[in-house]
Design brief:
There is one protein chain. The protein is of the alpha/beta class. Helix content is 45%, strand content 12%. It has a 5-stranded parallel β-sheet. It has a two-stranded antiparallel ribbon with strand order 1-2. Strands 5-6 form a two-stranded antiparallel sheet. A hairpin with a 2-residue loop joins β1 and β2. The longest helix is centred in the last third of the chain and has 19 residues.
């Protein structure tokens, strides 16, 4: 692979890349994808582990069959087991009909277990048995069922270290770690940053229409360290598209602390400021007293307009590029100041 191809902006299925490391990783992934070998994908949170898993499925011989993704974290042990194994009608209180678990749903296709290191110990043992015997028994049933899925797993933990401390089963670790693929943090594959950012601008055109990255935005994106990886990049792009006034995203819309020299540094993200309209004498007493007040008023107007145009607070938060929790906080501030109705 020559350097021109490596550094060019490219796509491979659902993966967008431009860095030599990612190009080499995808070349390796495309080879293992054609087999049924179990793959363990490692990498920090937000680096794109599920995207790589989907690429493995899309380029495999099972691509026409289901891709079933399951996040193993933050669920009670009983719920994890139920979702994976399924249950028969009447297996427990509330089981009013049969549920086909993910082992069954993925039959013939690919099962992706994200954050596999978070599986409870008892479920680890049962997963190992399924991988060894290629059969499982739904909750409330006595009849084992055969399944033939290809397993992909991902983790942001050091599973080998967890094996040493007894947190993760050693036999399951070696069953999963047949072919490891490790994703680097975004800062260590800088060639991916701009291709990904441009793709995200296109993806989120619903926010503010067609836009493009300006030169200062490109420089800021390259200079930033990206501790939150690809997930943080997407959040920044969405937020900037809400903030930008026009069709070009510039550095000031991103609000990144890049550490560039003062003459090239970028101001923290604020809403674009326009000159206030001239006030009549009657309006003079209500005019903002300072530029800061004017910005607050603009933010309030943008929030209220977005709430009017979107069906839910969750949708409004997504359109504004902020979390729903942040939106609730801002609304509380607006209600306290009398700028929003109590019911909003």
């Amino acid at each position: 692979m020559n350097n021109a191809n490596v550094h060019a902006e490219a796509t491979a299925g659902s993966v967008i890349y431009g860095d030599p490391f990612t190009a080499q990783l995808l070349a390796l992934a495309s080879r293992v994808a054609r087999t049924d070998v179990t793959v363990l994908i490692g990498g920090a949170s937000g680096t794109g582990k599920e995207v790589l898993a989907r690429y493995l499925h899309e380029t495999s011989l099972r691509s026409a069959a289901p891709f079933v993704a399951f996040n193993c974290a933050c669920l009670p042990e009983s719920m994890v087991e139920d979702l994976l194994f399924g249950h028969e009608k009447g297996a427990f209180t509330g089981a009013v009909q049969r549920f086909h678990g993910y082992f069954e749903q993925a039959d013939g296709g690919t099962l992706f277990l994200d954050e596999v290191g978070e599986l409870p110990p008892s479920v680890q043992a049962k997963l190992l048995r399924v991988l060894q015997e290629r059969e499982f028994t739904p909750l409330g049933s006595t009849k084992p069922q055969k399944t033939q899925f290809r397993l992909l797993a991902a983790t942001n933990r050091n599973l080998k270290g967890d094996v040493a401390t007894g947190r993760f089963r050693e036999d399951l670790y070696y069953r999963l770690n047949i072919f490891p693929l490790q994703l680097k943090p975004l800062r260590e594959r800088p060639g991916d940053i701009i291709p990904l950012a441009r793709a995200m601008v296109n993806k989120h055109q619903y926010i503010s229409g067609a836009m493009r990255l300006g030169d200062s935005a490109v420089a800021a994106l390259r200079a930033y360290d990206w501790p939150g990886n690809v997930r943080e990049l997407e959040n920044v792009i969405q937020r900037a598209m809400v903030i930008a006034d026009g069709s070009i995203l510039q550095a000031e819309h991103l609000g990144l602390d890049t550490g560039l020299p003062v003459e090239n540094n970028f101001i923290p993200m604020t809403l674009p400021v326009t000159d206030p309209p001239p006030s009549t004498n009657e309006e003079a007493n209500d005019a903002p007293e300072s530029l800061a007040d004017w910005r607050v008023a603009q933010e309030a107007e943008l929030i209220m307009a977005t709430l009017r145009d979107t069906p839910t607070k969750m949708a409004a938060a997504a359109k504004l590029g902020i979390s729903e929790r942040t939106l609730r906080y801002k609304l509380a501030r607006l209600r306290d100041s009398g700028q929003a109705m109590v019911g909003v």
